[in-house]
Structure prediction request, 164 residues.
Amino acid sequence: MVVYSFYIFDRHAECIYKRRWLNRPASIVGKSSRSVDTQPQASTMGSGQTVRSGDDDAKLVFGTVFSLRNMVRKLGGEEDNFVSYSTSQYKLHYYETPTNIKFVMLTDLKSPSMRIALQQIYINLFVEYVVKNPLSPTEHPGGVGVNNELFEESLEQFVTRVLA
Prediction:
């Protein structure tokens, strides 16, 4: 299984953490082989396609999740939950905590449901290293995100060892 990227959104729709392990297929990121995390702003490529910045990707991911979650709740009722969706290029997995923290992971198509893995990331990593850390802010105004080395190292180990 291949993990492309991982996002955490707070209850105010701000992306407080993003991490990219591998570039998604070229058709998703504007047919560029460059990593979009290193691009500070959107730029136009020669064929008229744009390479989005990491912030733009996070906004698009959140918008997609927000829209699909609302659609599922309107069509199926409050008990139905949005868990994942697939395209021809990737699979998006979603987990929302009781405190409205949203975890999103983009993987390849072969991966099974990552709902339990996202729940484990929340309980074993996010709560332990971010929430329980007295130096970590409880709110992230203006997109000030999670800046915790233990969380980042543990997430890296979890993704490379457990999910590999």
Observations:
- Residues 54-76 form the longest helix (23 residues).
- The helical segments are 54-76, 115-131, 149-162.
- The chain is about 35% helix and 20% strand.
- The two ends are 6 Å apart (CA to CA).
